[in-house]
Design a protein that fits this description.
Layout: E1 2-6, E2 9-11, E3 33-35, H1 37-51, E4 57-64, H2 68-78, E5 82-87, H3 94-108, E6 112-116, H4 127-135, E7 138-148, E8 152-159, E9 162-169, E10 172-176, H5 188-194, E11 199-202, H6 235-244
The protein binds adenosine monophosphate.
Residues 6-8, 36, 38-39, 42, 62-64, 92, 94, 97, 115-116, 118-119, 122, 124-128 line the site of adenosine monophosphate.
């Protein structure tokens, strides 16, 4: 089985994001960038499938600027076999990413694509679903458990009412939720080995994909700051505030 894992380079989750003064977006210069945490979980799951002997090859792919090579190298250090960078300096929308991946699937013919459920910069939660629709493949999103079956996978998903288990046949698209696994840290020897693994670079034009944007960002603003809380003296004080100030009881 061949697995394709799309990984996105995003602002590191520990960074306090700042809005640009002209409200056109968020500040990216001199900001630490890392692999999107849900993509790390996707790479980890693919590596575990390889370790179990279910997968033969793992290809990580990123669509982004030249620096996204670092993100791909992280995936290679975690255990992926080779990388592909689709290099572009423009911000690509989820539909554009899905179309690029669709074109890449024709070339690479993977059996399984594991993506993050969401990128933490745009919080889109769209790419996996769009990709499955474009390919006409089955999809199991928000996976918290993935088990191999004879024809594909049983995927347990976290939904509002609890857990749902879907059976998907190969080829299929799976997107990862937070509790699927705990991604490993790449060891120093594996980071060194990753430098020797193959990494190909392509331009979106080579895949013949139309990336013209369908949406425009009008304005980015900070969320409204939250009011400070108050400490209550005792239960009576709390009940009094809930009754007379919050008026919720
Ligand atoms: P999104 O739909 O933007 O929330 O992203 C969901 C998932 O799609 C991410 O976790 C990645 O696996 C994949 N993805 C989105 N954008 C990119 C990108 N530029 N390069 C590679 N993978 C991406």
């Amino acid at each position: 089985m061949k697995i394709l894992v799309p990984v996105k380079r995003v602002v590191d989750f520990n960074v306090k994001v700042r809005v640009k003064s002209d409200h056109s977006g968020v500040e990216l210069s001199n900001v630490k960038m890392s692999m999107n945490p849900f993509c790390e979980i996707a790479v980890e799951e693919a590596v575990r499938l390889k370790e179990k002997g279910i997968a033969k090859e793992i290809v990580v792919v990123s669509i982004g600027p030249a620096q996204a090579q670092e993100t791909i190298r992280t995936g290679l250090a975690m255990g992926a076999d080779r990388g592909i960078l689709i290099q572009t300096d423009v911000a690509v929308e989820p539909l554009g990413v899905a179309k690029i991946l669709q074109a890449l699937v024709k070339k690479e013919t993977p059996d399984l694509i594991i993506l993050g459920k969401q990128s933490i910069d745009g919080d889109n939660n769209q790419t996996g679903q769009m990709l499955a629709a474009l390919l006409g493949w089955g999809q199991a999103t928000f996976a918290s458990k993935v088990e191999k079956t004879d024809t594909g996978f049983n995927v347990t998903r976290e939904i509002d009412g609890g857990l749902e288990t879907l059976a998907v046949k190969l080829p299929c698209v799976i997107t990862t939720d937070l509790r699927l696994n705990e991604p490993r840290y790449a060891s120093l020897p594996n980071i060194m080995k990753a430098k020797q693994k193959p990494l190909a670079t392509m331009k979106p034009e080579e895949l013949g994909v139309d990336l013209s944007p369908r949406t425009a960002v009008l304005k980015v603003t900070e969320p409204a700051s939250r009011k400070a809380g108050v400490k209550v003296k005792d239960v009576a004080d709390l009940v009094g505030k809930l009754k007379n100030e919050a008026k919720v009881i």
